[in-house]
Write a structure and sequence with these properties.
Blueprint (H helix, E strand, L loop, with lengths): L2 E6 L5 H11 L5 E6 L1 H7 L5 E3 L7 E2 L2 E2 L1 H13 L1 H15 L3 E5 L3 H9 L3 E5 L2 H5 L9 H14 L5 E5 L12 E4 L18 E4 L8 H6 L5 E4 L5 E3 L2 E4 L3 H9 L3 E4 L3 H9 L4 E3 L6 H12 L3 E3 L7 H9 L1 H9 L6 H14 L6
Parallel strand pairs: 1-2, 1-6, 2-3, 6-7, 7-8, 8-9, 10-11, 10-14, 11-13, 14-15, 15-16
Antiparallel strand pairs: 4-5, 12-13
Helix pairs in contact: 1-2, 4-5
Amino acid sequence: MAKILYGVHGSQHGHAIRATVVARHLPHHEFLFISSEEGAGLLGREFRVEHFENPGTRYKKYKVDTAATVALAARTLARRGRELDRLARIIDDFRPDAAISDYEYFVPIAAKRAGIPCLSLDHQHVISACAHDIPASLRLDYYGILASIRFLFSHCTDYLAISFYQPPVKPGLRARIAPPILRDSVFRFTPSDGDHILVYQSCSICDAFVPFLKTLDREFRVYGYDIDRTEGNLTFRSYSEDGLLADLSTCAYVMCGGGHNLMSEALYYGKPVMSFPVGGALEQHLNALYLEKLGYGRKLDMMRLSKNMILDFEAALPARRAAVRAATFRGNEMVFDLVEGFVKNGRLALS
């Protein structure tokens, strides 16, 4: 048995869900989590968690709220010295054999100071570990997120990025890319092709989206608005893991933002994805670009909604379904083995 210090980015739920899946599949090890916000709440249901505020992205009106995001980062960095001292005391008490970071700021720095090997396990490092063909309109955002990743979240010894797209790793990096980690509950549902369309809005809501959906002669099952009611062709459902996965596994296709976790689950079920990435969120735009490049779906603009985008997307559904169903989107077993090897050897196996 090893003791593992595990830092988890607290914004949204995706990072904590991924960390929970990893910890559940390595029950012979002891975990101590470092997290904040929604992540700390979710992890705290099963594991010991110490709260450390982290830099995170804030959203407003379907765009990154730059002022709020910068303010959060500044507040976190202002407490950097005190928080690292507190984490050093926690490390002295817990005495971890290895550390893991899912886009968390403090754990990699503290682990490095303590001489503890630290594995980065997240999706974001696919951005910095690989070369990408970035459109000119996104290059400013791209270089901005690269700087953020390298300055705030790149103090680990090794990097394992999980992603539904897997471009080659840049030469000389101790890094590799693996298919997505899916939560265990995903595997309880058998996919089939129904008539409804699954709509999922998470980090930000566009006011024009629901009125647009009401103009379409389609059945939509809508998550993200935290209500339960029916309005014409729209059925709103509050979040339920089983309810969401049941609707996701049986839908015709998916309409969502640009989040990697929901995309990966949809693709695992063989569902093409219509993606509306949030303005200024480069990771989401990159996900959507690869979605379109690989033939799995379309990258679209929430500010330019039209009926033709629906008709065009549906006309290509057979080809997109074929592309999705020819690929592999389950990386759980590979990732568990790689993490186990890192914990045992203190190094990530690169081949």
